[in-house]
Amino acid sequence: MVCLGNICRSPLAHGIFEHLISHKNIVVDSAGTAAYHVGNPPDPRSQEVAQSHGIDISTQKARQFTAQDFERYDHIFVMDRSNYSNVIRLATQEQHRSKVELLIPDTEVPDPYYGGFDGFEKCYQMIFKACQKRINAFP
Ligand code: 4NP
After folding, report:
1. Which entry of 111, 123, 131, 134 is annotated as an active-site residue?
2. Which of 10, 91, 116, 122 could form a disulfide with 3 if both were Cys (CB 3.0 to 4.6 A apart)?
3. What pLDDT does 138 receive?
4. How far is the centre of ligand 1, averaged over its atoms, from the C-alpha of 89 (Å)?
């Protein structure tokens, strides 16, 4: 799960996906394309919205996406088209590029960082539905 800062959207996606797949043998992780917040916990508003839905994301720590992630993971889900370009720029082979897709096909999860709490709840709802669909598509 990839966004820009790895403190708002992708930590939610990471927490939600993990919460929903407890019974499947899938490793979930998240990262940001930028390094601004590396080492920081998720934004307090993301932590609060997750907590309000029974999901604890407080122990996550932001990290930056690296080219090694193309080797480590089978699927790389990005939140918006800017994340998509930033990730694709690091890919050196078609096999890696083909792993990258918008978490929600043809739709961006809007960056909630500069807005109010409502934006975080909206992100939560969008990401939750998308994760359910993705998980149903896994074996
Ligand atoms: P995220 O949100 O990409 O969903 O983690 C953002 C977090 C921080 C910044 C921008 C977006 N920032 O500019 O610091």
Report:
1. 111
2. 10
3. 79
4. 19
Maximum C-alpha span of the chain: 41
Residue ID of nearest Cα to ligand 1 atom 9: 5
User: Angle at Cα 62 formed by Cα 59 and Cα 34, nearest 5°?
Assistant: 165
Question: 78 φ, ψ to 5°?
Answer: -110, 155
Model's pTM, two decimal places? 0.97
| Domains of the chain by residue range | 2-135
The ligand 1 site (C-beta within 6 Å) comprises 3-9, 32, 36, 111, 113
Catalytic residue at 134?
Answer: no
Identify the CATH assignment for 2-135 out of 3.40.190.120, 3.40.50.2300, 3.40.50.720, 1.10.10.10.
Answer: 3.40.50.2300
Average pLDDT, the chain: 97
Q: Is 9 a catalytic residue?
A: yes
